[in-house]
UniProtKB/TrEMBL annotation:
Any one Gene Ontology BP term: DNA integration
MF GO annotations: nucleic acid binding
Boundaries of every Integrase catalytic domain copy: 127-309
Pfam family, one: rve_3
Gene3D superfamilies for this protein: Ribonuclease H-like superfamily/Ribonuclease H, Winged helix-like DNA-binding domain superfamily/Winged helix DNA-binding domain
Record organism: Methylorubrum populi
Name of protein: Mobile element protein
Length: 317
């Protein structure tokens, strides 16, 4: 029998083990006979010598000392000091308790990390009441390419020859209420391209019966320029900018960027970036006319405009 696979000894088996050990057999021989390890033989012999036959009986595995729960008052004091941004070591010193106790209480209350003291502000979801009240505008940088990449073809022999041909920029606008979207590709994100896209986007929304009242952008240099501000003033359109480092403020634009990448830019393997550019109008048509949008209860953006059927048909053609 494998001596490393200990058998579950009954009290009678333990008595036999002790008799064999006291008969002069070596601990190893006794262990092989009883199917236990030599350490177990030594444990039961020592217990018999200390307690007699009573030491060989089954006994409770309950520990001699039980953990005493930390008093509620102490827990509250630990939490109070933690909210004052004290470290675990400082709290343990000030309250004369062990660092392990402090750690256990902080873990129970979800305050183990300092950042837990300042949970993130819940996202405030909103939707404007009618189309045109707010248009979100954003820009996404895309790499240009002249041939299919090696991740698709598996051919690395010309891996470096297609690099460094530059970038192009997807300018996009989406209506907060209807989710109707428009986008174009421009060679840069400078002021001239941003103004050109703004005017084209406004024409697009006007064709769909939408009068734009507000525009929301990030804090890019082009959007903060005087000419951009002047153009919006002349059009009597209010300009709202997102708070710095908080892209979720412009969340609908960010979401449309992700949808565009997944369902257009990276939807299939294009031979060139020009081929990808040519597919953009088809994607926009699907997005606006046929694709159900989860944020508007599975409706299509075009369905939220409330246009007459004849007008919708003219837009389609």
């Amino acid at each position: 029998m494998n001596i490393h696979q200990n058998a579950r000894l009954t009290p009678a088996g333990r008595e036999r083990l002790v008799r064999l050990a006291r008969s002069g057999l070596s601990p190893k021989a006794v262990a092989e006979t009883m199917g236990v390890c030599p350490k177990t033989v030594g444990k039961w012999v020592a217990r018999f010598e200390a307690e007699g036959a009573a030491g060989l009986q089954d006994r409770s595995s309950r520990p001699h000392t039980l953990h005493r729960p930390t008093p509620v008052a102490t827990q509250e004091a630990i939490v109070t000091l933690r909210r004052q941004r004290l470290t675990g070591a400082q709290i343990a010193r000030d309250l004369a308790v062990s660092p392990a106790t402090v750690s256990r209480v902080l873990r129970r209350y979800g305050l183990s990390r300092m950042r837990d003291l300042e949970p993130p502000v819940p996202v405030q979801r909103y939707e404007r009441d009618k189309p045109g009240e707010l248009i979100h505008i954003d820009i996404k940088k895309l790499g240009r390419f002249e041939r299919m990449g090696h991740r698709i073809t598996g051919d690395r022999t010309r891996q470096s020859s297609g690099r460094g041909i530059g970038w192009e920029y997807l300018h996009l606008a989406i209506d907060d209420h209807s989710r109707l979207a428009y986008s174009e590709i421009h060679p840069d994100e400078q002021r001239g391209s941003c103004l050109a896209f703004l005017f084209n986007a406004l024409r697009f929304f006007r064709r769909h019966g939408i009068t734009v009242e507000r525009v929301m952008t990030d804090n890019g240099p082009a959007f903060k320029s005087r000419r951009y501000a002047k153009a919006l003033r002349r059009l009597t359109i209010r300009h709202k900018r997102t708070r710095p480092y908080t892209p979720k403020t412009n969340g609908k634009a960010e979401r449309f960027v992700q949808t565009s990448l997944r369902e257009w830019a990276y939807a299939r393997a294009y031979d060139t970036s020009e081929q990808r550019r040519a597919e953009l109008p088809a994607f926009l048509f699907r997005y606006n006319w046929h694709r159900p949008h989860g944020g508007i209860n599975g409706k299509t953006p075009i369905s939220r405009l409330g246009l007459a059927e004849d007008n919708l048909l003219s837009l389609h053609t």
